[in-house]
Amino acid sequence: MAVISDPATEWQLAPPVSARLRGSLGATYRAARRDKVLAASITVLLIGLFLAFFAPTLARTDYERTDPVNRLLGPSTDHWFGTDNWGRDVFDRTIVGTRLSFLVGVSVTVVSTVIGVSVALVISYFRLLDSIIMRVVDGFLAFPTILLALALISLIGPSVGNIIIALSVTATAGKIRLVRGAVLSLRESTYVEAARAVGVPVPRILMLHVLPNIVSIIIVQATFTLAGAILAEASLSFLGAGVPEYVPSWGNIIATGQGYMQVGFHISFFPGLFLTITVLAVVLIGDSIRDHLDPKLRGRLKTTAHS
Amino acid sequence: MWRYIAQRVLVSIPVIIMVGIITFTLVYIGPGDPAAIIAGDEATPEILERIRHDLGFDRPFPVQMGEWFLNLLRGDLGTSYFSGREITELITPRLQPTLSLGFQVVVLSTIIGISAGMLAAWKAGTRLDKNLMIFAVLGFATPGFWLAFLTIWVFAVNLGWFPVIGYKPLSAGLIPHLHSMFLPVMVNSILASAFISRITRSAMLEVLREDYIRTARAKGASEFSVFLRHAFRPSAIPVATVIGASIAGLATGFVLTETIFAIPGLGRMLVDAIVRRDYPIIQALLMVVATVLIGVNLIVDILYAYIDPRIRY
Q1: Partner A contacted by B213 (CB < 8 A)
Q2: What is d(CA B230, CA B216) in angstroms, rounded to the nearest whole number?
Q3: Could you tell me how many CB contacts below 8 A there are between chain A and chain B?
Q4: Exposed e or buried b for every residue in A233-260, given b needs 16+ CB within 10 A?
Q5: Any B CB within 8 A of A238 CB
Q6: Contact residues, A window 4-33, toward B, CB-based 8 Å cutoff
Q7: Which of residues 254-293 of A touch B (CB under 8 A)?
């Protein structure tokens, strides 16, 4: 039993990080070969990431400069997605808009996951702190995400950083509640009790025995946060509470097209399609990860398929 | 049962107080100076000082918050900076469109969602099941404001079946009212029902593996009766949770829907208030919406106890 609290042997039980990473990449590749939907979703996200980094250099026109002569043109070989009410190329604006969606989505996911998981781990072992923080969390979760984000942005001003802050607030509160629940139920499990009994300090228990067991819940939840944050950013930009109009965002391009429905269907259609496909890919990847990571659920799916 | 209800109500009170503290603090620490907004651009420092004093903004934070809470309890939501009118007075005419939209969407999405979910569970593994679930995932990923745009383009702009915008109140007659609300109701119902159907399906499949379902089948109960009488009630709990959660989602959806379809409801009021930086209205609406949602959660909790008597103890 003393072995458990011996750091050397404890670490030896886990393979080195590089091997684990290679292992999970390999597992993803094998899963994607079996599952066409997963393969398609990953491809969509990789294209999205590529566009997020390189779209401004791929753009053939100056996507922020107005060109009134060529306003409201339909899709053609010159302008694949047509032009908007200022004569700007919708294809270029749409691919550049990928950048903001991914930046906000990934930032909100990372910020809320890191803060949410740390806070949840810490408060799960301090009863007083737990009851205070959880009241605050309940309070924040009582607001619908977009409403609270809109109100926050109206107070702190619209900018990319502030959008990320506003969306991270509710996302973090949600993470704290979810992870705390998982930690509390794990705390009752026999092996955590055993570790405590032999005198493993609480921080070690949290990092080595609790955290690895909630990683799958955290990853699956992170994909839903990513999907939600991408949608929320688009909604905020659509309502005009996002970035300034000349900076392309899927939300504000759709809002522009809204005013030109008779002649400019293409303006809103294409960025909306990009948005839907991206969110769809993220949600499908989340579903797939959940099915692969949760052996219990996998068994359950098999039984239901037979019944 | 009454004891359980009283207990749930008591648990909700601290959440409402927390919501109030968050709402008040956010606006209080926000950078906007209400006196400057009211006074306009040409105000001298003396005028600003007098406005601050008249409205009590120079008093300490706890005093201001305490007074705000007392006013809330008296049903006084404050006064709009922009129009100078009582907010309760401004909210009243906005209630009908939002409540009508909410009622129709909740009823319709529940009916569509539960029937689609049960159908998928019944035909689990078949092509019908797969198609229904593809629809459910699509509904989960499609942004409501874009779907609204597509439906307006198809049904209003091209087919001309519905007005592009133009809300008609109930006083204009039930049929014109429902007609003017048809597209926004459909868009929100389809999206909300996608989620409900997914949860209904998985909850039903879970219950269908239980021993007592096998027993029911063994004693010769028809498949129809197994589904509706034996399996549905136990799976209603996750479904009730999701319907409760989808109402919170609707609150977000309505801000967008009311903006696109130009429906003069609470969501539109919030967007207008945000554009004008009318903080008392933002404060009041956040408070009202959060309180309504806490109320919805309370009702869902009570429904649990009704569906599953074990929860009462």
Answers
A1: no
A2: 8
A3: 134
A4: bbbbbbbbbbbeeebbbbbbbbbbbbeb
A5: yes
A6: none
A7: 254, 257-258, 261-262, 265, 268-269, 272, 275-276, 279-280, 283-284, 287
Tens digit of pLDDT at every position of chain A (307 positions)? 344 444 444 444 444 555 555 666 777 777 777 778 888 899 999 998 888 888 777 777 777 777 777 777 777 777 777 777 777 777 888 888 899 999 999 999 999 999 999 999 999 888 899 989 998 998 998 888 888 998 888 888 888 999 999 999 989 999 999 999 888 888 888 888 888 889 888 888 888 888 888 888 898 899 999 999 999 999 999 988 888 878 888 998 888 878 777 777 888 888 999 999 999 999 999 888 877 776 554 444 433 333 2
Helices (H), A199-264: 202-204, 211-238, 250-258
What domains appear along chain B, each with residue ranges and CATH number? 2-73 (no CATH), 91-307 (1.10.3720.10)
Q: Which residues in chain B have Cβ-Cβ distances shorter than 8 Å to A224?
A: none
Which residues in B lie closer than 8 A to residue A136 (C-beta atoms)? Answer: 18, 22
CA dihedral for A43, B191, B96, A152, sign (positive or negative) = negative
Nearest-by-CA chain A residue for B142: A276
* pTM of structure: 0.85
Q: Let me know: does B241 contact B299? Beta carbons within 8 Å.
A: no
Q: Enumerate the residues of chain A whose CB falls inside 8 A of the CB of residue B142.
A: 276, 279
State whether A151 and B137 contact (CB < 8 Å). Answer: no
